[in-house]
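hiii so um. not sure if this is the right channel but i have a protein structure encoded as tokens and i wanna go backwards to a sequence. like what aa goes where. can anyone help
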């Protein structure tokens, strides 16, 4: 990853962490993540990597699901990792590391599952990231990427202009092709509809109004998965 891209990503998500935005991710992303956890069929002894873990909300949930395994949460933001560690002191099977997906600081063939929720469209080198995910998976292991910002959902395209760092707006099939090119098999993609309640009036910055938010959620998040 170019140094300026890595530094700008780290600085932006350090700012998010300092503003407390990492802790709010669970409420926003849980409706699209819970169905994926069911599909993963985790065993108690599995080892799981959470790429772009933020403040660790998903890593902590995973750690409860694999009590005899290990969960590693990784994020490019040092500040996010500090927040995650502070909130996770009660977990003996969970650790956090600072790192980037193109150079995951872990040995090959270790993880049974890798999951990334709402971080992959920030990766400067998507192909390198997916290839390194393949490296750290053991044979038969699987990768699961959940993406709310993708080309097939027209109600999110405006996000690119609102974010302070570059993003990659790819189609479902382009994501699947990245998996296949990296060497994954059984590559598939599907939509995970967000059925959570929507406000009658929307006052945030990400959507035009409540109607667009509802349309976005009904299109669903993109799940891309593959097996090593």
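sure thing!! here u go:
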């Amino acid at each position: 990853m170019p140094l300026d891209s890595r530094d700008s990503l780290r600085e932006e998500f350090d700012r998010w962490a300092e503003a407390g935005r990492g802790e709010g991710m669970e409420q926003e992303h849980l409706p699209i993540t819970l169905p994926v956890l069911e599909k993963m069929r985790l065993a108690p002894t599995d080892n799981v990597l959470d790429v772009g873990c933020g403040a660790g909300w998903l890593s902590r949930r995973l750690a409860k699901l694999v009590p005899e395994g290990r969960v590693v949460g990784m994020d490019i933001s040092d500040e996010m990792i500090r927040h995650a560690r502070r909130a996770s002191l009660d977990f003996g099977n969970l650790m956090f590391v600072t790192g980037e997906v193109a150079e995951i600081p872990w040995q090959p063939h270790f993880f049974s599952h890798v999951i990334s929720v709402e971080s992959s469209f920030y990766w400067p080198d998507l192909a390198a990231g997916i290839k390194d995910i393949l490296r750290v998976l053991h044979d038969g292991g699987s990768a699961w990427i959940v993406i709310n910002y993708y080309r097939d959902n027209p109600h999110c395209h405006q996000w690119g202009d609102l974010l302070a760092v570059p993003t990659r707006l790819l189609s479902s099939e382009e994501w699947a092709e990245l998996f296949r090119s990296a060497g994954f098999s059984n590559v598939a993609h599907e939509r995970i509809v967000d059925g959570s309640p929507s406000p009658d009036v929307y006052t945030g910055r990400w959507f035009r109004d409540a109607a667009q938010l509802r349309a976005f959620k009904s299109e669903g998040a993109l799940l891309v998965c593959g097996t090593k």
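oh and The first helix runs from residue 3 to 18.
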